[in-house]
Amino acid sequence: MSGSRIERVAILTGGGDCPGLNAVIRAFVKTADRFFGWEIVGILDGFEGLFRSDATVSLTSESVRGLLPQGGTILGTSNRGDPFRQRQVVDGEVRVLDRSREAVERLETLGTDALVVVGGDGSLTTGLELHQLGVPVVGVPKTIDNDISATDLTFGFDTAVRTATDAIDKLQSTAASHHRVMILEVMGRHAGWIALEAGLAGGVEVILIPEIPFRLVRIVEHLRERHKSGRNFSLIVVAEGACPMGGAPIVQGQRDPHAPVRLGGVGPWLAAQLGELIDHEVRATVLGHLQRGGSPSPSDRVLATRLGSAAAWLVGHGDFGKMVALRRRQIVPITLAEAVHRRKTVAPFGEDVMTARCLGISFGD
Ligand code: F6P
């Protein structure tokens, strides 16, 4: 990383993909091109790309043309490759290795003067750690879960809520036709924002989120009450991280015990439990990665564009170790140190939950 004059800047996208990543890349490159004239190097497949000599691509205003409405990330992404915690199988055993020095050397070999990390809490933490090793880093927050407290909103969330709301609308007509209870499982590992907002937007009867442990008996009471009053079908939205009081979230079996835990299955589990307890038929739909795919909504495009452009200005001003964030409708820089490891979860007595309760929506508690 050469002195103070910036000539070459690297950018990567890390962690789970998210609608709006391409809009960030496009805005960053276009702003950089117009105002600073840097050479932009895209690192492919997240931090993993720092360990492969073939994993770079040159980005120009020409090459980012048409990216705004595209889902996914043209750079590719990965949950693996964290330079500080690389899992490798050595002699049949999984070992966690610190390869951060190699990552820093790779950036030096590439001749980059700064690194832009577009990612969730994990990738931003890695960005902060690289910054502490002397790499000039700027972060851009992303997650469909909207659970980063340092920013009022993350891009991708609005698109995910739209997809989930659309699914609820569709389930409503089939639920009504068959007089069934329909359960929709949505993403939301530690935070129930997608379930809460889609549940409110779709007008469901029950919303189950990680922040409010539920009791089966309460859900059954609520459904019976509703069905007694003549409403012959019901909709439930459940976040993947929701769990019964005193229980644990349902995880999917995975071969590698050291890999990040994969949640999922609470919807079908709940359907099986409720099916035994109520007269109505119960069906579950797991929305899964449909929530992460596809074209970003207009507001996600705008937010991603504002963040990408602001990231270029931070690099231009040499304001490193920072992340761009949305605060009170303004894009502002905040330090990565104050941004990471601070999760934004749904407040069980917050205004939005209370509004839902006012409308008779049950949280199963
Ligand atoms: O963090 C975003 C998220 O969408 C979580 O809600 C979900 O648990 C996870 O990603 C799924 O990740 P993967 O695609 O790696 O299974």
- Return the average pLDDT rounded to an integer: 96
Read across the widest sheet, the strand sequence of neighbours is: 3-2-1-6-7-12-13
Estimated share of beta-strand residues: 15-25%
- Count of DSSP E strands? 13
For the record, give the distance between the C-alpha atoms at the N and C termini, rounded to a whole number.
55 Å
Secondary-structure-derived class: alpha/beta
Approximate helicity band:
25-40%
C-alpha Rg, in Å?
22 Å
Spans of at least 5 consecutive residues with low confidence: none
Report the order of strands and helices.
EHEEEEHEHEHEHEHEHEHEEHH
Shape estimate: elongated
Counting DSSP H or I runs of 4 or more residues, the number of helices is: 10
Ligands in the model, by name, code or SMILES, are: 6-O-phosphono-beta-D-fructofuranose
Main sheet makeup: 7 strands, mixed
Overall description:
- This protein has 365 residues and is of the alpha/beta class.
- 34% of the residues lie in helices and 19% in strands.
- It is built from ten helices and 13 strands.
- It has helices spanning 21-35, 100-109, 121-132, 157-178, 193-202, 216-228, 266-277, 298-316, 336-339, 351-358, and strands at 8-13, 39-43, 56-59, 86-90, 93-97, 114-119, 137-141, 181-186, 206-208, 234-239, 282-286, 322-327, 330-335.
- It has a seven-stranded mixed β-sheet with strand order 3-2-1-6-7-12-13, with helices on both faces.
- α1 links the parallel β1 (8-13) and β2 (39-43).
- The protein is elongated.
- The relative contact order is 0.17.
- It binds 6-O-phosphono-beta-D-fructofuranose (F6P).
- 6-O-phosphono-beta-D-fructofuranose binds at residues 16, 79, 120, 143-145, 187-189, 240, 262-263, 292.
- Residues 16, 79, 120, 143-145, 187-189, 240, 262-263, 292 line the site of 6-O-phosphono-beta-D-fructofuranose.
